[in-house]
Specification:
Blueprint: H1 13-22, E1 31-32, E2 38-42, E3 51-58, E4 61-69, H2 80-88, E5 92-93, E6 98-99, H3 104-110, E7 119-129, E8 134-144, E9 146-151, H4 152-161, H5 171-184, E10 194-199, E11 205-210, H6 214-237
Parallel strand pairs: 1-8, 2-9
Antiparallel strand pairs: 3-4, 4-7, 5-6, 7-8, 10-11
Helix pairs in contact: 5-6
Length: 241
């Protein structure tokens, strides 16, 4: 299937060399936001962590801190990394292997929001009231530091047991409010099961269906909230699509 779809193979030598070089960069012009207790939530074994979150409860709602890996901090326009990324367009996921967009030294190392040090990010600060309505938006380039790499299953278990870290404890409340606001906007929520291709003992493959955990639905609402916030800023500035 990969051959038929012409999925790219290994990275050219000039891309790997450029990735090694830029992986040593520092970012003195980014604001210091390493005091935020952000965490990442991803499938087990993930290394390319591109977003981290912390949610603070306010008297009439919540403040969402959402850090998205600052790709532009690492990619020089017109360079080898930029050229190859435009050719690849995305990370390709197969049941047995992942074909990344960026060289692992960046995508799974220096640029990934792993909990092992400061990373450059686009840090969103979004206030949401009790009805799920956005009341304030701010975004800036900042250095952030993830406190923990969590899985969806871990977060769900902590939420169910009442032992969730402070960064994610408000997910049920804000997630419920955002879902209610989505319904008022007539947003469509299909609720389709996740389809996972898994190996069988006889060496073949099969598809396993899995319903989303509640945390996955709530986390998706935070991502959509950030996307709507970006769209709002672009519309107000008269830029974008």
């Amino acid at each position: 299937i990969r051959r038929e779809l012409e999925i790219p193979g290994s990275f050219p030598a000039d891309v790997l060399a450029e990735a090694d070089r830029v992986a040593e960069r520092t970012f003195p012009d980014h604001e210091d936001a390493t005091d935020l207790d952000l965490v990442t939530i991803d499938p087990p074994g993930s290394r390319d962590l591109d977003q981290a979150v912390a949610i603070e409860t306010l008297p009439d709602g919540w403040r969402v801190f959402y850090a998205i890996a600052d790709v532009a901090a690492w990619v020089d326009p017109g360079g080898a990394i930029d050229r190859t990324a435009r050719e690849r367009t995305q990370t390709y996921y197969s049941p047995d292997v992942r074909t990344p967009l960026h060289a692992p030294v960046l995508g799974e190392g220096a640029a990934s929001l792993l909990p092992d040090g400061a990373r450059p990010a686009a840090l969103w600060t979004i206030d949401v009231d009790a009805t799920g309505t956005t009341t304030a938006i701010d975004v800036r380039r900042a250095l952030v530091r993830s406190r923990a790499q969590l899985t969806y299953q871990q977060v769900q278990e902590h939420l169910d047991a009442g032992t969730a870290p402070a960064a994610v404890a408000a997910f049920p409340a804000i997630g419920t409010a955002l879902l209610a606001a989505a319904r008022r906007r007539d947003a469509i929520e299909l609720g389709l099961p996740d389809q996972e291709v898994v190996a069988t003992p006889d060496g073949s493959w099969t598809v396993v269906l899995r319903a989303d955990l509640a945390i996955e639905r709530w986390n998706a609402q935070i991502s959509l909230l950030t996307g709507r916030s970006a769209a709002t800023l672009m519309i107000e500035a008269g830029v974008g699509i």
